[in-house]
């Protein structure tokens, strides 16, 4: 589940409305998880559907949307994100930022001295 899907789901869960425009993201979420009912160019999400989405996000990504919003990941380091989610890539920072990357040459052992 990517950051865009998380943000869209979080907004829907926090919203009082039940009808949402059936854009590409909602269409993909609906097709993938079969949550909600399509009504012309809208998606109907009942309170139960929103609860299912909340549980699904928690199960897949380890994020409790009642405790933390996906927008809060932007300011976190990758290690910090791992304390509240399964995927450290949600921080949006490059892997090598403030880190040293080392790899061995093909067919040779890596020696650190």
List the helices and strands and how they pair.
Elements: H1 3-14, E1 19-21, H2 24-33, E2 37-39, E3 42-44, H3 47-61, H4 78-81
Antiparallel strand pairs: 1-3, 2-3
Radius of gyration computed on alpha carbons:
19 Å
Report strand order across the widest sheet: 1-3-2
Quantity of strands, as a count: 3
Main sheet record: 3 strands, antiparallel
Mean pLDDT: 85
> Tally the helices: what do you get?
4
Spans where pLDDT lies below 50 across 5 or more residues: none
The SS-based structural class is mainly alpha
Account of the protein in words:
This protein is mostly helical. The protein contains four helices and three strands; from the N terminus they run αβαββαα. It has a three-stranded antiparallel beta sheet, covered by helices on one side. A hairpin with a 2-residue loop joins strand 2 and strand 3. Helix 1 (3-14) runs antiparallel to helix 3. The protein is elongated and about 65 Å long. The relative contact order is 0.13.
């Amino acid at each position: 589940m990517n950051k865009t899907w998380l943000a869209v789901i979080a907004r829907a869960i926090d919203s009082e409305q039940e009808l949402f425009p059936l854009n590409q993201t909602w269409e993909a979420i609906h097709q993938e998880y079969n949550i909600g009912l399509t009504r012309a160019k809208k998606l109907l999400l009942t309170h139960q559907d929103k609860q299912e989405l909340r549980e699904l996000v928690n199960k897949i990504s380890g994020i409790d949307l009642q405790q933390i919003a996906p927008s809060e990941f932007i300011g976190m380091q990758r290690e910090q994100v791992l304390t509240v989610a399964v995927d450290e890539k949600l921080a949006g920072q490059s892997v090598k930022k403030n880190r040293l990357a080392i790899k061995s040459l093909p067919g040779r052992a890596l020696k650190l001295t």
